[in-house]
C-alpha cells in the first residue's frame, strides 16, 4: 500500500483504565505493522480529570505524558484528543455517552484550553474548532450506549472503529455519514496489544496536526481495515502478551 499510513485512534497506558499498552510497546507494534505514524487520542473528560487523575496536581501535564512518551519512541507522532463534553463521558453510571475525536489540535493548544475544553457545549466546541481549524469527528457513533452528537456540530464520524470489545455497528455509521454528508474517518481505537486494525492512508506525508486537518478535508486518502498484515501483527502481539 503506497502512501502515508496513520493510526487515527490510539490510547496509551496511564491515561485511562481502559488503556493497557505503554507507548514503547505500541510504537514497536505499529512499526511492525508498517504504519508511518500514529495520532495519540487519549480520553479527556471530567471523569478522567477528576477521578483518574484525582491525585495529580498537574492534570494537563499528566494527560500529555502519553503523547510525549510516544514521540520519544521515535515513531512519527501527532497529537489528538478523544473528548467527551460535560456529562457525555462513558462510565458505568452513565447510560449514554458520546466522544468526539479532535484532529488538528496541537499539544500547545491543548495546554492553552485544558479543562475548559470538556466544559464546552457542542456549540461552544464547534465555534472553537472553527476558530482554531480543528476538525470534530464523533467516535464510534453507533456503539452500544452511544448517543448521537447532532451532525451540525461535527465535521465527520468514524465509519470504522476497530475496537474488538464493543459492538460498533460500523456499517450503520457508514450509512449515517453519507446521509448527513459527514466526512469519514477510521481507526483501531487501540487499547490492547492485539488491537491494530485500521487507519487512513494519505497520499502525502502528514507532517503535523495542521497538515492532518488539511488532508482530512481533501479527498487525498483512503481508509484501510482488517488487512492480512494487521491480523498477523495483532496475533503476534497477543502471543507475546
Ligand atoms: Zn478507552
Ligand atoms: Zn477511543
Automatic annotation (TrEMBL):
Classification via InterPro entries: PHP_domain, Pol/histidinol_Pase-like
MF (Gene Ontology): 5'-3' DNA exonuclease activity; 5'-3' RNA exonuclease activity
Any coiled-coil regions, as ranges: none
PANTHER family cross-referenced by the UniProt entry: EXONUCLEASE (PTHR42924), POLYMERASE_HISTIDINOL PHOSPHATASE N-TERMINAL DOMAIN-CONTAINING PROTEIN (PTHR42924:SF3)
Name the UniProt record assigns to this protein: Transposase
High-level lineage: Bacteria, Bacillati, Bacillota, Clostridia, Eubacteriales
Amino acid at each position: 500500500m503506497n502512501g502515508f499510513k496513520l493510526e487515527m485512534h490510539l490510547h496509551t497506558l496511564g491515561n485511562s483504565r481502559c488503556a493497557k499498552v505503554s507507548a514503547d510497546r505500541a510504537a514497536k507494534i505499529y512499526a511492525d505493522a508498517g504504519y508511518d505514524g500514529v495520532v495519540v487520542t487519549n480520553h479527556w473528560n471530567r471523569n478522567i480529570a477528576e477521578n483518574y487523575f484525582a491525585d495529580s496536581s498537574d492534570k494537563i501535564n499528566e494527560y500529555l505524558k502519553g503523547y510525549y512518551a510516544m514521540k520519544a519512541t521515535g515513531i512519527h507522532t501527532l497529537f489528538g484528543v478523544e473528548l467527551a463534553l460535560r456529562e457525555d463521558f462513558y462510565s458505568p453510571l452513565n447510560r449514554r455517552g458520546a466522544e468526539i475525536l479532535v484532529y488538528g489540535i496541537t499539544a500547545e493548544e491543548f495546554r492553552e484550553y485544558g479543562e475548559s475544553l470538556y466544559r464546552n457545549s457542542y456549540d461552544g466546541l464547534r465555534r472553537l474548532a472553527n476558530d482554531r481549524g480543528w476538525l470534530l469527528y464523533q467516535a464510534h457513533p453507533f456503539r452500544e450506549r452511544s448517543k448521537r452528537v447532532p451532525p451540525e456540530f461535527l465535521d465527520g464520524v468514524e465509519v470504522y472503529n476497530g475496537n474488538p470489545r464493543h459492538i460498533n455497528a460500523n456499517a450503520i455509521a457508514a450509512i449515517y455519514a453519507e446521509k448527513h454528508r459527514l466526512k469519514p474517518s477510521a481507526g483501531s481505537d487501540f487499547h490492547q496489544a492485539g488491537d491494530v486494525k485500521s487507519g487512513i492512508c494519505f497520499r502525502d506525508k502528514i507532517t503535523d496536526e495542521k497538515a492532518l486537518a488539511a488532508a482530512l478535508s481533501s479527498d487525498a486518502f483512503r481508509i484501510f481495515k482488517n488487512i492480512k498484515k494487521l491480523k498477523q501483527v495483532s496475533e503476534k502481539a497477543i502471543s507475546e502478551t
